[in-house]
């Protein structure tokens, strides 16, 4: 029987070799009908044609369509590599699709900085990003290394984690960062002299002009556009900018609103403001979020807020339980007073605004979970979905409690590839490394979870996060924590509908169901059919957003 509804202008049916929907009621299909940018029907071509649609687009008949990948923890900063040189260990695709080789030694970093300095006017800042000293066997990067590149420019090396920077002596002198400087996070050598390390935002902000330059680049229309390109190239159709400061800068919000309205902007953005300030200002913050929500549109949502409680494990600034770090110096640092967390979060919880909290360390996860327990005792909310983001060292006891409280976890499972060996051998030791980012245990306990790239910390690529969760392999072929591996079907759902759930957007995106946005990832191969070790090598053709295809520009 054919529907009595008349066809609409723009109605289209896409056919494919296979469609994976992330909808358990109908997990696969071969055709999908789109009307007004939404899913009208999913099934066979004959099923879809019953709506009276005659336009059939067969360009994807040899490809696999899936529910659009949802990246529930990334940053618009991803687009900054269009303007700020990348100096990370692993080579990666830039937002425009070009490839940049990694930096494999301190000497190579110094050479790159020297080449930049040769074409930069003296006194002008040199800012690069993505460096990570944990891979190097030599002494830790210091101001003295950077001085070898140039003494005529302020040099600011932003580390991959986003929690650390190293600066040269030019910057130390420019801002009078001297022996005995009182700011927390300033690094000193064995003689008590500043060594150029600035740990966490309070210390990095001492290099005022250079740190501000990163912020200026991040919230530009160009960077936001490059962010969209990077996500599209990875097959991501919904991406969270998890932790911005739009509430403090109205112009930042307007930049994102304007950029996302452009027809060629190929991703939906979940813009997530970061909680800053003190408890007395939180009610005003809530009002700002509620007001901003009235300005959003189909490609721009403000679903939750974010709190940051600690730093990074590889930077030794995450706060971890006994016995502390395996080797190296413990710089664990709470970024907010743990005894005030409940007061910070109470206004958001009471206003029905979901909370994602950055917790890399086990101590930090415990603080956040305990705070949510207090808030739920004070004010019941059965569908809060408060999420421990990163949750890398969360313990089994903490996971059970979080599950009982209705919480979620968003694991930074890419760490198993990018830093798994370093965590096992340097930061936390073999026992805790095997148990970190515990997808398998979360399934056994019943804790809802997704996983993420934290792009630009690691490249935006949900096929890679799926691969990391399925294999937990390291660059040298080791498997760290085999009991925490999951299968490809579970990984696919973590990369789609489960991320949408955590963002309170699962009624809009995350699966291909009637009434949701027609957002799809277009793949050359089926991740279910390839060898488990080849999942990350599946090629992304591009995406379909609201029924409109957009081809990747990534260079193969």
TrEMBL record:
Alphabetical list of InterPro entries matching this protein: Amidohydro_3 (IPR013108), Metal-dep_hydrolase_composite (IPR011059), Metal_Hydrolase (IPR032466), YtcJ-like (IPR033932)
Residue ranges of domain Amidohydrolase in the record: 61-548
SUPFAM superfamilies for this protein: Composite domain of metallo-dependent hydrolases, Metallo-dependent hydrolases
Molecular function as annotated in GO: hydrolase activity, acting on carbon-nitrogen (but not peptide) bonds
Protein name, per record: Unannotated protein
UniProt organism field: freshwater metagenome
